[in-house]
Design brief:
Low-confidence stretches of chain A: 170-180
Oligomer: heterodimer
Strand order of the largest sheet of chain B: 1-2
CATH topology of the largest domain in chain A: Helix Hairpins
Shape of chain A: elongated
Number of helices of chain A: 6
Number of strands of chain A: 0
Structural class of chain B: mainly alpha
Order of helices and strands of chain A: HHHHHH
Radius of gyration of chain B: 39 Å
Largest sheet of chain A: none
Helix content of chain A: 55-70%
Largest sheet of chain B: 2 strands, antiparallel
């Protein structure tokens, strides 16, 4: 029988606090291995917290294992924690592989600052563009004037090249009307 | 309607293949789609006339109340004829326009056809949101078409400008549509228009809708994208920027005018947008030398005129506007196509370089003349009929109490029409006339490169249609009148060729004469325009705004994206500490409904275990040796398992112990390659910050842990789990039944995560492929006989360096491996009723494999389980999720369990639940994960670190 018996036990609360605190301390480090250990400790703390939130200790949630009068611990919280444990394993392995790869490439497993992000911030601080977009640059012409200089691919290649020569791209015609 | 829509989109999808096979002749096939739409509309003319509008409704997303509602009323009929007819002609024109070796024709064909489909959708949609979806599709396709020559900067810039402006307007329109739908409590356009909302929602909706229409139809102050969009290929200009897409804006105005045209905000906005655009476009068109740009500014001007006419509340003007809409599609489509034909023939569109083409291209010149006659309003063309009706209606309203409003509209239309006459003549003269120099000598005729009937026939068709429609004005009135009659005010208008000597006829004459003078004095006009102000402000403001936006984006990025992981994590943690922490602190200070209560422990043993946890966790933070830190974290993990056990969670304890073991092994496997000490960073200041953050976070978590159970007041959802587990799940272990049955979708999601993580690990270590090659003993010594391998404890042991071998370990491994696998299987099968289950079973088997690997090296791992981990992962996920689908076949829900009792001789009754297969899948996924870890972080790292002196590596190099 599951009855909500919700008084928390202080030792477990303490364990959650210490695990999370230690986890955070490691998480904010630079070496990925320490970050990973921090995540493992944090996960343990979070799992324990879920357990406490599920209610007080009780008989194991297996029907027929204890007399019906004995209170059972909450199986739902346990099912959630169980999946969380295995996910933590998969996640740890992934971070570990990253740490290994980082060591392989750079000779250490420290998380460096993103160089590109830093550059963008520096440029923004001095009000310079972070990148040059030639499409957005001013040309002195309006876009419709530019559009007037565009021609479709309507002629076969050889003929097109001849016409383009005739058209004399870039040359402004005489101010007066009529062809030259 | 729906089949026509689907046909067009299907053709669009098939277009690249068709073009690849048929070349540019494929455009003929593609024109079937729009042609079918026009044919459908023409075939439905009788029903539309009778007021029996064809409708079709297909549910699409019932949860969102979204259905594909299509309706063909008079306005939609007109638009569908225009969109379908001009679309088909333009596609036919394309079949001769592009050269055979032009690049990207397949893509172009697909996008243009898809655009036609989207346009068909816009004009027939009867659902506000569906209208928006098609509307945005036209925006996207238009972007792709304007930017067709993506290698040209001007194309890209024009396309970007067009999509930014029209999307912004589209979003505004979406707001308006939603306000309308909510205020009117229906998403049917026909119902909204029949019973429009009033008051504040109506004003908001009107402003938003007109913003959408103004961006789409290139009205001021958003007009400048349309001339720039002339960077698109000419057939696109003819279709999108004259006949179809810009008309969507007009369509929107016409669609909602019967509902809102009498609202003050609508009236004045329409006058301002329509009248202003009409004059500005005409003024700018007079200054252009590029044939397409003359037409583009002319289109801007004409769109202003049509919006002005269909947006006013008067029935007569609405009829004139609809007639003008149809006439404009014909003459402007024709003129763009002629401009394209001239471009093809002469190799330029610059009227200063063209001369004498009327002689070499007489038919094209005829088509252009027909269209121009309609555009300037020469009798008996369609343009004349429409303009007469407009002038008549405006004159009538202005002189019958229309006040300054109508007078202003009349002046704008007369002046704008005069400008239209001037630039139309300028176009015709510029394209075809023989130019003369100042001394009166004729210029050389421009040489003609290529002509094709297919480039002349479509514009000629449109030009002749403009003449025919003008000759039968009564038919136009009968066809379009019903929609104009839905407008709220005014006398019904008439379309006639000869109405006698009316004031409107006088105005028409004035317009023609004024326009002719402007054209005659074109050089003076140009010089005057050069000296006067040239209205480019909108263009500049737009570009300045975009640059400012870029600046702000860079500033925001620089301010928020610092690129430092500790900073990001720190921010997250500070928020965690501040937000829930503040709530809890205020609760403690101000008092809450939660009654504080606590016990020291549930069982005294917990205290002892917690001491271990605390010590291990603190030591882990202080350790400078990697191995020590890892071991301390492991100790904390094992102690956690003890806490689980004491809490009454044997499943958790079992799983925690097993995962902790795997984690520890894998960590050590990797750490052996890394330096033994952490690099020390001499930053004591940051250490204090970290410590403070850690303490605060720990305290907040403690407070949360303390309050979370106390804050619970309702019965837990798991109250019914025991009964459900036995009755439906067929098992006594509630946690396991929860995983494989009650909440099995969660578990499917979770094992998917495992699969992704395992794949990620493999890809980071193997780099180039999903898995390395399968290592088998036979690769090391191909000649070794079976007997030789059979009488040793661990077959692959001899591939290892002698100093890395341990006979004891090999013997023990040999003894316990099979037992461990058996225990794993036991956990799997008993898991439904006792502690265990797929996760524990998979981990157990995984540990057995780990032991084999540790004892015998990477070849032993290959011998122990010669399978690729991907196979296990995939099979596992398929078993778990796939078998769940089987339940559908038996008429149950997905993943629902079926309990089967089998009577097997000897064994007796076997109680079996189908969720066992689910659990087997889970087990396979977990085994796959562990195997992946061993093969990557174990075996592959071995291989990468082995020096060639070792026997195993030597063989690999040799093979």
């Amino acid at each position: 029988m599951i009855v909500l018996e919700n008084t928390p036990s202080l030792v477990l609360v303490l364990a959650v606090g210490v695990l999370c605190g230690a986890g955070v301390y490691l998480l904010l480090e630079r070496p990925l291995t320490r970050v990973l250990l921090g995540i493992i400790l944090l996960s343990n703390g979070a799992n324990l917290m879920l357990l406490v939130a599920g209610g007080r200790a009780g008989a194991s949630p297996i029907v027929g294992n204890a007399p019906p009068t004995v209170r059972m611990s909450d199986p739902l919280a346990q099912a959630m924690i169980l999946t969380a444990i295995v996910i933590t394993l998969a996640l740890s392995a992934f971070i570990l592989a990253m740490a290994y790869r980082s060591w392989q490439l750079h000779g250490h497993d420290e998380v460096a600052d993103d160089v590109e992000d830093r550059r963008v911030a520096r440029q923004a601080a001095v009000n310079e563009p972070a990148f040059v977009d030639t499409d957005a640059a001013e040309t002195g012409e309006t876009l419709d004037e530019e559009a007037a200089g565009l021609y479709d691919e309507v002629l076969e290649r050889a003929e097109r090249e001849r016409v383009e020569r005739e058209r004399g791209d870039g040359d402004e015609p005489e101010p007066g009307e009529g062809p030259r | 309607m729906l089949p026509v829509l689907l046909l067009t989109f299907a053709l669009a999808l098939a277009a690249p293949a068709l073009v690849a096979r048929l070349g540019r002749q494929a455009f003929w096939v593609l024109s079937i789609g729009p042609a079918a739409a026009a044919a459908y509309a023409l075939a439905s003319t009788g029903r539309v006339q009778a007021g029996d509008f064809p409708v079709s409704s297909t549910p699409w997303v019932p949860g969102l109340d979204l259905s594909i509602d299509l309706r063909l009323d008079t306005l939609s009929w007109l638009m569908l004829v225009v969109v379908g007819g001009v679309g088909a002609l333009v596609l036919v024109y394309c079949s001769a326009y592009f050269s055979r070796d032009a690049e990207g024709t397949g893509r172009f064909a697909a996008v243009l056809t898809a655009f036609a489909g989207a346009m068909i959708g816009v004009v027939t949609a009867d659902d506000l949101l569906l209208l928006f979806i098609f509307w945005e599709l036209t925006t996207v396709f238009s972007y792709l078409l304007i930017g067709h020559y993506a290698d040209r900067k001007a194309s890209r810039r024009a396309a970007m400008q067009a999509i930014v402006i029209t999307t912004a307007g589209g979003l505004a329109m979406l707001v308006g549509l939603i306000v309308l739908g909510v205020a009117a409590d229906t998403w049917r356009i026909s119902e909204v228009v029949a019973n429009p909302p009033t008051g504040a929602p109506a004003v908001v909706a009107i402003v938003c809708l007109l913003a959408g229409a103004a961006t789409k139809a290139a009205l001021i102050p958003f007009h400048f994208w349309l001339p720039a969009a002339m960077a698109a290929p000419t057939p696109v200009s003819a279709y999108l920027h004259a006949a179809a897409m810009v008309k969507a804006g007009v369509y929107l105005v016409a669609r909602f005018a019967p509902a809102f045209a009498d609202a003050a905000v609508w009236r004045w906005l329409v006058l301002l947008l329509g009248g202003g655009t009409l004059l500005l476009g005409g003024y700018r068109a007079l200054r252009q030398h590029d044939l397409k740009l003359i037409l583009a500014f002319g289109t801007v001007s004409q769109l202003g005129l049509i919006v002005l006419l269909v947006g006013m509340e008067s029935r007569a003007l609405a009829l004139a506007g609809l007639a003008m809409l149809g006439a404009h599609a014909m003459f402007k489509g024709a003129l763009f196509l002629v401009a394209g034909a001239v471009d093809v023939a002469a190799g330029t569109r610059d009227m200063r370089k063209l001369s004498g083409l009327w002689r070499s291209m007489p038919v094209a010149a005829t088509a252009a003349a027909l269209a121009t006659a309609s555009m300037i309003g020469l009798p008996p063309f369609a343009g004349f009929v429409a303009k007469e009706a407009a002038l008549e209606g405006l004159w009538h309203d202005a002189t019958h109490g229309g006040g300054g409003y109508m007078a202003a509209a009349l002046v704008a239309v007369v002046a704008g029409s005069g400008l239209t006459v001037a630039y139309s003549l300028r176009f015709l003269w510029g394209a075809f006339a023989t130019k003369r120099a100042a001394d009166g000598a004729a210029h050389e005729p421009t040489p003609v490169h290529r002509r094709s009937w297919m480039l002349i026939l479509p514009p000629l068709t449109l030009g002749l249609l403009g003449l025919l429609a003008g000759l039968a004005p009564a038919m136009g009135e009968r066809l379009l009148g019903p929609y104009a009659d839905e407008y709220p005010a005014g006398e019904p208008g008439h379309l006639v060729l000869w109405a006698g000597l009316t004031p409107a006829l006088g105005l028409s004459a004035l317009v023609l004469a004024g326009g002719a003078v402007l054209f005659w004095q074109r050089q003076r006009v140009e010089r005057l325009q050069d000296r006067l102000w040239s209205p480019r402000a909108a263009d500049l403001v737009y570009r300045r705004t975009m640059r400012r936006l870029d600046d702000v984006a860079a500033d925001v990025t620089g301010a928020t994206q610092r690129g430092s992981l500790p900073v990001y994590l720190g921010i997250i943690l500070v928020v965690l500490a501040l937000a829930p922490g503040a709530v809890i602190a205020s609760g403690l200070l101000l008092g809450t409904t939660v009654e504080p209560a606590a016990v020291a422990w549930d069982q005294p043993a917990q205290a002892a275990v917690v001491v271990v946890v605390v010590i291990a966790a603190i030591l882990a933070t202080r350790a400078r040796r990697r191995l020590k830190a890892v071991v301390m974290v492991g100790v904390a993990g094992y102690a956690n398992a003890g806490l689980f056990l004491l809490h009454g969670a044997p499943d958790l304890a079992l799983t925690q112990v097993l995962t902790e073991t795997v984690t520890l092994v894998v960590l050590v496997l990797v750490l052996r390659r890394m330096p033994s000490y952490f690099s020390d960073r001499p930053l004591p200041a940051s250490r204090w910050v970290r410590l403070a953050l850690a303490v605060v976070t720990g305290a907040v978590m403690m407070a949360l842990t303390f309050t979370a159970p106390l804050a619970r007041v309702a019965d837990p959802i798991s109250v019914d789990f025991p009964d459900e587990a036995v009755e439906y799940g067929g098992g006594n272990n509630i946690v396991n039944v929860t995983l494989v049955d009650i909440r099995s979708w969660d578990t499917v999601g979770e094992i998917s995560v495992i699969l992704v993580a395992a794949t990620g690990v493999a890809s980071m270590v193997f780099l180039r492929q999903r898995s390395g090659e399968m290592l088998r003993l036979s690769q090391v010594d191909g000649d070794a006989s079976d007997e030789q391998t059979r009488d040793v404890w661990i077959a692959a042991g001899r591939t290892l360096d002698p100093e890395r071998r341990s006979v004891m370990f090999e013997v023990v491994t040999r003894l316990i491996f099979h037992a461990m696998v058996l225990v794993g299987l036991f956990l799997l099968f008993s898991g439904h009723n006792y502690p265990g289950g797929g996760f524990a079973a998979g981990l157990m088997v995984g540990i057995a494999l780990t032991v084999r690997y540790l004892a015998g090296g990477r070849y032993e791992l290959g011998e122990a389980l010669p399978l690729q981990p991907g196979l296990l992962l995939g099979t596992g996920l398929f078993l778990s999720a796939g078998v769940g689908l089987v339940a559908l076949l038996t008429g149950n829900e997905v993943l629902e369990s079926v309990i089967i009792d089998l009577h097997v001789p000897v064994l007796g009754t076997v109680h079996m639940v189908t969720s066992l297969f689910f659990d087997i899948g889970v087990m396979l996924v977990v085994i796959g994960l562990v195997l992946d870890l061993l093969r990557t972080l174990g075996a592959e790292i071995d291989r990468q670190s082995d020096t060639p002196s070792r026997p195993a590596a030597r063989t690999e190099v040799a093979s």
